[in-house]
Known about the structure:
Bound molecules: adenosine-5'-triphosphate
Low-confidence stretches: 1-6
Number of helices: 21
CATH architecture of the largest domain: 2-Layer Sandwich
Number of strands: 22
CATH class of the largest domain: Alpha Beta
Region (A): 1-338
Subcellular location: Cytoplasm
Family: Belongs to the heat shock protein 90 family.
Region (C): 555-631
Protein name: Chaperone protein HtpG
Structural class: alpha+beta
Radius of gyration: 32 Å
CATH topology of the largest domain: Heat Shock Protein 90
Helix content: 25-40%
Distance between the termini: 93 Å
Largest sheet: 9 strands, mixed
Strand content: 15-25%
Number of domains: 4
CATH superfamily of the largest domain: Histidine kinase-like ATPase, C-terminal domain
Amino acid sequence: MTTATAEKPVSEAHVFEADVARLLHMMVHSVYSDKDVFLRELISNAADACEKLRYEAIATPSLLGDDPDARILLKLDGDNRRIVIEDNGIGMSRDEMIEALGTIARSGTRAFMERIEANKAGEGAQLIGQFGVGFYSCFMVADQVEVASRRAGEEAAWLWSSDGKGSYSVSPLEASEAPTRGTRITLHLNEDAKTYVSRWTVERIVKQQSGHVPVPIRIVEKEGEEPQQITDGTALWTKSKSDVTPEEYTEFYRGVSGQYDDPALTVHFRAEGRHEYTTLAFVPTTAPFDLFDPDRKGRMKLYVKRVFITDDAELVPRYLRFVRGLVDTADLPLNISREMIQDSPILGAIRKGVTSRILTALEKQAESDAETYLKFWETFGSVLKEGLYDDFERKTQLLGLARFQTTAGDGFRSLADYLKDAKEEQKAIYYLAGSSLEQLKASPQLEGFRARGIEVLLLTDPIDNFWVMNAPEFEGKSFKSVSQGAADLAQFAKPEEKAEEKTPEAKAEVASLIALAKEKLKDEVSDVINSDRLTESAVCLVAPETGYDRQLEKLLQGAGQLKTATKPILEINADHPLIKAIAGATGNPALQDDAVHLLYDQARVLDGDKPTDPRGFAERMARVFSKALGA
Ligand SMILES: Nc1ncnc2c1ncn2[C@@H]1O[C@H](COP(=O)(O)OP(=O)(O)OP(=O)(O)O)[C@@H](O)[C@H]1O
């Protein structure tokens, strides 16, 4: 047991961690107008504290003492312009208080705050709305906050107090002044926030925002009065689907996710049979700010018989890490340790079941409400695509869910759309990977495909380079990069065959230009060949048939995972006037020499790269220009 020791000063002053100070400053001067959210945040913390206690009490029942039922009490005090939020949950020790209410633990928060600060007026308002603003949100409405807390099973109680302006104090609290167990938060409301002493206002907000937290909430207006219950703490997920309204789902989603948008998809089901569990899962409309934070884990909560166990159980695969909600099962023992959870075969089976149901629900939405599904895809598609790489079993299902930008137009297309419009003789699904859509659309490698009306998927997410390498066939067609290997284009008829028959001399000239280029560029390229994929550009680079596609190679090199690069193949368009002219300049070997190097540099620039030898490039360019201008 911890007690206040004599050496501890009566009141210790602490300075907030720099990030807390920044967050508080933002909160107080926030452009975010919906201050009501502080109530949801404090109630949600109170409910979490009650759930943590329930969990710890499984191993140590004495923690509950003679007060086993979780509750949250709101006390209004109009005379003193105060509101009190009290719970009989786990409480906080002195050190926990300093840790929890003086620092920011969550990863990604700093980056998030930087984004908000950089964009105060515009995006900021929405961004902060997406962000679980947490305990510190109470400084939006209060100019003094006191947190009195006693940890379950301990005697000592502590008072944390702050005006939110840079520092806080922690002092021991007389037993008589402290809650018997749990936390009491007193907000001294500022002038603009006096509405929060109105019972009508508070009751309305609580019912609307926190109506389904799994702990009953009561309210009392005057000291000595009997508290009135405003929500009953029934777990929404235990109700049958037909008894829950869309508004109730939305409100529950907001509570469980800390996001302030509407769910784009709600999946609620009870599995019976080998394993019994209930899932209530939501796909958000907007992306959380830390979606691509490497530390971000799934945020589904695990309950066992309505007792919250952990939100760290990875109930869905990483590529569904945007899904929020919970799984409640009676098949696991209540005293399962958090460490044992990861290896539990039951949980493995549940994970599979939940994943399948979510993917099936997405498939249904794609069919019945294509517009909403597309919005989902634009927001979370690049994350779902990670499953194409990771989840061997579900690759084909995920390919069915995937949508792509293609050369066929501006919108997104499914692979089914692609195949419906594919050429009869087409054996592959063609793609081109790169870093931006604009760059891809302008790629010379696409020309021959465009000219023959063959659609090409344009892949711009870094993950695309990886999954596409090992993608399974889709409806019997394999994936093939248009910037790698032979273009296979000869098999497809061109609409109007414009290349005129070349004279034997012209053919010989092109052949010797190719031979010259091979010789001069032998350190840069593995081969120089006549192209059937170019129609407008003079040259382009492609990767050899085997090995990495060029884009993937660049990514791996950038990440330091590949020391040597494969030499690309330079393709030359023999029908291009420039190539014809260079090939014809047989009497000017110096010019031809400069020209083949410049052609190679041009192909690199078209690929988004720089010339390998900038000085040599500049010199050749100057020589060719001078000659052209007669200088
Ligand atoms: N009523 C409470 N009882 C016990 N601990 C609390 C209470 N309120 C806050 N805390 C502690 O303070 C921490 C910080 O709370 P805060 O709301 O800022 O963040 P969070 O709850 O961890 O994250 P989020 O807001 O995303 O849920 C909590 O994790 C908890 O440890």
